[in-house]
Amino acid sequence: MRPPRTGTRKASPNYLDGQMLVAMPGMTDERFHRTVIYVCAHSAEGAMGIVMNKPAADLSFSDLLVQLDVIPDREAIRLPNRIETMQVLIGGPVETSRGFVLHTPDFFIDQSTLPIDDGICLTATVDILRAIAKGQGPESAVLALGYAGWAAGQLESEIQANGWLNCPADPNLIFGPSLDLKYDLALRKIGIDLGMLSSQAGHA
Questions:
Q1: Assigned domain for 4 exists
Q2: pLDDT for 60-101, tens place per residue?
């Protein structure tokens, strides 16, 4: 359950690790319409990110812990109260049966946790779910099923074709409870009013 590899490189301003991708209103791929994506890895070999504003329908964090045999069903009522507020997201169309936890850096598992920037880590092993169930996990976390992936050069091409904008990430865009508001919040962070934005931006 390791995160997909996208190559090893030194940090570069040309890559978008730790940034948010914001779908343009004219996005033709319905899977990514009005999505906000946190970029976990980006290199010359491709990119991988997690959609932050699509909830997993009718699936709670505690339900998932039971389904994955992290806890028995009878233990669900004894879980820490904050688990009820943890989000389960549809992280993207690739490998939707895999779970990826984005979380604060106060929790770390050697050989399993990938630091993305100073404030966000990614862990994709069941150990973090066990820790959360015991109340020993990170202060803030969100679980995503699946991820969004791009082949070498694909994301760059989509950005050049006005498919995506990008902006710095912040905790509210990642851990904030109001999924419906994240798209507008991300656009405002860039300084864009959705009502004024043309799907042909960049061609003016």
A1: no
A2: 888 888 888 787 777 666 676 677 778 899 999 999 989 999
Least Cα distance to 91 among 29, 58, 62, 48 occurs for: 48
d(CA 156, CA 46): 9
Residue 116 placed within a domain? yes
Encoded tokens for 162: 């006005």
Q: Which domain holds residue 138?
A: 19-191
The CA-CA-CA angle for residues 131, 134, 138, to 5°, reads: 45
Residues 6+ apart with CB under 8 A from 161: none
Question: Distance between CA atoms of 183 and 169, rounded to whole angstroms?
Answer: 12
| Helical ranges in the chain per DSSP H | 61-67, 126-133, 154-160, 171-175, 182-190
Does residue 77 belong to any structural domain of this protein?
yes
Q: What's the domain count of the chain?
A: 1
CATH number at residue 162: 3.40.1740.10
pTM attached to this predicted model = 0.86
Specify if 62 maps to a domain. Answer: yes
pLDDT tens-digit map of 92-142: 999 998 999 999 999 999 989 999 988 999 999 899 998 988 888 899 999
